[in-house]
Every structure is written in C-alpha cells, then in structure tokens.
C-alpha cells in the first residue's frame, strides 16, 4: 500500500517561494499519475498541479501557471511542487495525491486519485 508524506510548508511573505515535497513509499511510484491539491478555509479542495507517469506531461490550475512547477524524481520516489511569486490567495493546506489504480477521469479531478497525504500548511502573508 502506498503512503504519502508531505513536507516543506510554512509561512512566507507575498512574492516569496516555498518548495513542497511528497515522499512516497512503494515500488511502482513511477507508474502513478501524481497530483497536488489544496484546500483553503471554508472552501472545497481544488486541483493545483499534476504530472502524468506515462509521458511526464504536467497540468496546472490556471491561477498558478507560470508560478508553480511540479516535478517528480522516480528514482527517489519524490514529488515536488516549487511555488514562486506566492500570493495570499495561495494560502491553504496542500495535499499530495497518487492515482494507484486506473480510473477513467482526468488527471485534474480528485476522483482520479485514491491515495492522499496528510497535508502541509502553506501561509502567505500580505
């Protein structure tokens, strides 16, 4: 069974950067689509970024394009989210997610993922 552990959250001023990491257990990490989601207080959890296992293609929420970069290191079983030019509206709990079973939904959909990390808090002050 895959387990995901996020790290790297914290408090940063607007315009700053943070780098989130997600360490995954399991021998077949390289075959999973992976994603980052976030949930702000009083709001639903939303897709932020995803990376496909088969071709490495990446996908982003429109509001983070050009500021966030998702990447993966299959040798280290690690998923990373580099967040630059952070804004107060990026404040949320960020979750790493893995799609360990194939589902006929898009990579940006929460329904595509069956394994979730515990989340890490990101707070951006103005």
Topology (SSEs and partners):
Layout lengths: L3 E4 L2 E4 L4 E7 L8 E7 L6 E6 L6 E3 L7 E6 L4 E6 L8 E8 L15 E2 L3 E6 L1
Parallel strand pairs: 2-11
Antiparallel strand pairs: 1-3, 3-8, 4-5, 4-9, 5-6, 7-8, 9-10, 9-11
Describe this structure in words.
0% of the residues lie in helices and 47% in strands. It has 126 residues and is mostly beta strands. Strands 2, 4, 5, 6, 9, 10 and 11 form a seven-stranded mixed sheet that branches. Strands 1-3-8-7 form a four-stranded antiparallel sheet, with no helix packed on it. It is globular.
Quick rundown:
Helices cover 0% and strands 47% of the residues. It starts with a strand and ends with a strand.
* Helix fraction by DSSP (H/I, runs of at least 4): under 10%
Mean pLDDT: 95
Described by its quaternary structure, the protein is: single chain
Helical stretch tally: 0
Rg value: 14 Å
Kindly estimate the percentage of residues that lie in beta strands according to DSSP.
over 45%
Ends: how far apart?
40 Å
| 3D shape | globular
Largest sheet: 7 strands, mixed
Indicate the low-confidence ranges by residue numbers: none
Overall strand count: 11
Order of helices and strands: EEEEEEEEEEE
Briefly note the structural class of the backbone. Answer: mainly beta
């Amino acid at each position: 069974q895959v387990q995901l552990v996020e790290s790297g959250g914290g408090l940063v001023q607007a315009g700053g950067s943070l780098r989130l990491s997600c360490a995954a257990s399991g021998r077949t990490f390289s075959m999973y689509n992976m994603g980052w989601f976030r949930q702000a207080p009083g709001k639903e959890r939303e897709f932020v970024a995803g990376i496909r296992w088969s071709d490495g293609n990446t996908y982003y929420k429109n509001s983070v394009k050009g500021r966030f970069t998702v990447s993966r290191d299959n040798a280290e079983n690690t998923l990373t989210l580099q967040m630059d030019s952070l804004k107060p509206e990026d404040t949320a709990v960020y979750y790493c997610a893995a799609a360990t079973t194939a589902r006929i939904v898009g990579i940006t959909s929460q329904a595509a993922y069956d394994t979730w990390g515990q989340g890490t808090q990101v707070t951006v002050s103005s």
